[in-house]
Amino acid sequence: MRGSLVLTPIALLAHYGFAAGSTVVFVLAGAALAPLAFLIGEATENVAFHTGAAVGAFVNASLGNAPELIIALFAVADGLPGVVLGSITGSIVSTTLLVCGAAMLAGGSGDIHARSLLVQLSTILVAVGLFVVPALGGFHGDPQRHALYVLSLPVAAVLLCLYVAVTVANLRSERETRAAVPEDAWPLRKAVATLSAAAGATAVVSELLVHSLQSFGRSLGLSQFLVAAVIVALVGNAAEQGGAIVIARRGNPGLGAEIAISSATQIAVFVCPAVALLSGLVGHDLALTFLPVELATMAGSVLVVVAAVFRGRSSRAAGLLLLASYVVAVAAFALASER
Questions:
Q1: How far is the C-alpha of 121 from the C-alpha of 264, rounded, in Å?
Q2: Which among 177, 221, 235, 273 has the fewest CB atoms less than 10 Å away?
Q3: 100: burial class by Cβ within 10 Å (0-12, 13-18, 19+)?
């Protein structure tokens, strides 16, 4: 798998050196993300040996969501608010249902830190509830009018404060339950350096892939909303997806689930409000006016995961339930009107 890391410079060379077509760049960039995700998963597992599962998941989600934030700001600058909000929705839904479900399916039976997961899932539900405030005004008239952007600012500020509070609480509780470091674990400095480099490369490759998405989507006849909610969301969270599944398959479904839900939480209470607050700096205000189908799928995905993790045990049956729920969510996206 590490040998396939050469796909990253190949994708960059195809785009910048040979000006390859959008479809070629899309395929190469997508293929390059797989080994990067594997490397991120391996590095995160070694970070978690030193810091505990919650801190490991936090580090993975923080670095893995950097491309999501960068992609969102580029889309805002290009005047594509529907793509930004659709990708945020799709990211929350895919990480809670698809990634967490795949991690449980790959890892099978095992203990999971239910308390930590339930706190984070509750945080996402609170975020969705706050999203309703500006979204109600967007159901009629221009959903991106300035008044709704102004209404979105205090919502974004509250979400960022909530993010800080929940993160500090989780990290403090994890310190008390940290296990001994295995003898064959990487040194912490090596693990963090590898994780940072892999996440940086993921950001660059993700940007290439997203720039080729519109042409690729048009060639398949997909709506802008569906491309944002499904394809852009999957691309922007490739690191968490691969890392969570790899770790779970190695016998640690608890950490795999923690990575997935930690990523969804960061998107809801960090990436989303940060993009809204920074949007004014890139020339286009972003009002957090999600569509009804977006609010419903985000809330529904959280409730399904709560039912799956409540007992503190992972199982393949629960994983299948989450994967089936993701298929239903994608069907709902496909039926929704284009933003």
A1: 9
A2: 221
A3: buried
d(CA 113, CA 5): 33
Please check whether residue 87 is in contact with residue 227, taking contact to mean a CB–CB distance below 8 angstroms.
no
What lies within 8 Å, CB to CB, of 189 at 6+ separation is none
**CA–CA dist 24, 11 (Å, integer):** 9
Contact yes or no for 9/205 (Cβ under 8 A): no
**Between these two residues, 324 and 39, which has the higher pLDDT value?**
324
* Residue 30 near residue 206, CB atoms below 8 Å: no
Which residues, 6+ apart, have CB-to-CB distance to 187 below 8 Å?
A: none
pLDDT digits (tens, 9 = 90+) for 250-294: 888 888 898 899 889 989 999 999 999 999 888 789 999 999 999
Cα 82-86-87 angle, rounded to 5 deg: 120
CATH code 3.10.620.30 for 2-335: no
Sign of the dihedral defined by the CA atoms of residues 113, 114, 119, 120, in that order: positive
Domain ranges for the chain: 2-335
- Rounded Cα distance between 6 and 10, Å, is 6
Q: Are 8 and 205 in contact (CB under 8 A)?
A: yes
pLDDT digits (tens, 9 = 90+) for 95-125: 999 999 999 999 888 888 888 899 899 999 9
The HSE-up count of residue 2 (CA atoms within 13 Å, CB side) is 5
Mean pLDDT in residue range 65-81: 80
DSSP state, 94?
I
Which amino acid is it at 142? D
Residue with tokens 């629960």: 318
DSSP tag of 187: P
Q: Which residues of 325-338 are buried (b: 16+ CB within 10 A; e: fewer)?
A: bbeebbebbeebee
- Count the Cβ atoms, other than its own, within 10 Å of residue 234: 19
